[in-house]
Amino acid sequence: MTFSKTPCGLFFVLALVFLTLTVVLKKWHFGLREEAAFGDDAPERNRLLQQLQERHQELDQLYVTSSDGFMNPHLSINDSIDYINGEMSADNTVTINETDIGCEELAGMKAVDFLGSGYTKTVLKVALLQGLFVALKSVNHQGTDMRMCMDDFKDSQRCLEFVSFKLRKEIALLQRLQHPNIVQLKGQCQDSALVGGITAVLEQGTPLQMIQLLQSPWEERFRVCLGLVRLLQYLSQSPLGSVALLDFQPRQFVMVSGELKLTDLDDASIKEPACREDSDCGLQFPLRNFTLRCSPSRICEGLNEMRNLYNAYRYFFTYLLPHQAPSQLKPLIHHIMNSTRDLKQSINETLIAFEEVLHMYQSGLHLENLPPSITRDYTLLKGMRSVGNMEYRCWPSYNQQGCVLTVHSAKEAALICSSNPQCTSFSLSDERTWTGRLLASFRSGFSHLVPDINSAVYMRRVKALGAVP
Fold it and tell me: For helices 144-153 and 156-176, what crossing angle results, to 10°?
């Protein structure tokens, strides 16, 4: 009896034939898919695969290259994101250290608000089961980048891989670049049916509204500019080297508890341009052009830093810094504006100038020439608060329905009140701003006073008869 005539042998032969046919059919099926996607245009397919490989290499560089030689201990160049025949392997994913929110925590999420969308990404405000609100950033499947890729290559799987690289790059950068003025990465979820692909979980902020910011008090506008300069100083010597924000726009930032934070990093560059001569180190802007020196190492050293600084000047400083600044600080402000407009100072020198303004503003040194007698025209009523107030409006004010300004002391508040004919009194409480300065409320009158140990009322003597204590 031969092997082929036994029942077991016959079953084995049939199984082998079935497996062979299955392999052949799969190859034929995937071949049809590739032909449908690319037709006979093999160069188009190779071009997309080449772009995928370039994005892969760019992402690897973020983990293995930095100015301090740091390497992520949980990731190597060989296990970051592997490709098999040009396709992404789901077995190897980038790990995020010191973050807690993953796919499991997102299972019970509830979308609360739509925060925005762009060419590549969509951002939602999400409430988690733990009661935490976060921003969920994922690939925009209907965005311009996805649509253009499909128009060119007609391959939805590889186009999704290609477009998702910007978000993967952003996650990698947020992992490496940690600063109070960079939005915090709280977790990620990759290749999950819950969120339709890779998703970054970020601290939730509000989109920066320049019109609203222009109407805010000078102290808050200065805070935004100071935070931006501190951020750019960090980026000039980050763990990845000098980082340039190639798409430098107000829309790349959000506000978190009054602090400016960078939230879009996918267009950041961690390379200083190479050069052969000085003309290769040019910076071109709509109204100004600059040229830096080509270093002996054939690198445009400082170009990233200068690009960031001038963009900070033209998008932020010009609109937010000089207007309504305290008169005593205007010479320092004008010096900052002139030096950044002409790129005469480095980011380190610019930060020193900002810190000097902050020191003078917080300490009250810019008010040292005020006469001590300026408060003599006011009657002080400690432990009292005015009620039935008659408000008048001033700009810019912390209260849009009245006149609430920040002051260093009662002397500065008295100076403000004395310069306004409408002002008959002001009150100080223990409420302070981020600089530690006091909030003062200015009024044209009030009906009566009530006890309040946390407040003090100052009444102008010349107009005190107009109030009824």
Answer: 140
Verdict on whether the full-model pTM lies above 0.85: no
User: What SS3 state is found at 60?
Assistant: helix
Question: CA-to-CA distance for 396 and 416, rounded, in angstroms?
Answer: 13
Q: Are the C-beta atoms of 227 and 352 separated by less than 8 Å? A: no
Q: Tell me 175's DSSP state.
A: H
38: helix, strand or coil:
helix
Q: CB within 8 A of 220, min separation 6: which ones? A: 213, 258
Mapped onto helix, strand or coil, the DSSP state of residue 187 is: strand
Judge contact between 208 and 260, C-beta under 8 A: yes
Q: Annotated catalytic residue: which of 68, 82, 247, 430?
A: 247
Dihedral in degrees, nearest 10, Cα atoms 100, 103, 108, 113: 90
**CB-based contacts of 257, cutoff 8 Å, min separation 6:** none
At 128, phi and psi to the nearest 5?
Answer: -90, 165
Give the bridge partners for 201, in sequence order.
136, 187
pLDDT by residue (tens digit) across 396-435?
899 888 999 999 999 999 999 998 999 999 999 999 999 9
Tokens 């935004």 belong to residue: 224
Find out whether 383 and 452 touch, Cβ atoms under 8 Å. yes
Cα gap 357→343, rounded to integer Å: 19
- d(CA 132, CA 206) in angstroms, rounded, equals 15
- The dihedral through the CA atoms of 399, 404, 405, 409 has a sign that is negative
Across 191-212, average pLDDT: 80
> Does 247 qualify as catalytic in the annotation?
yes
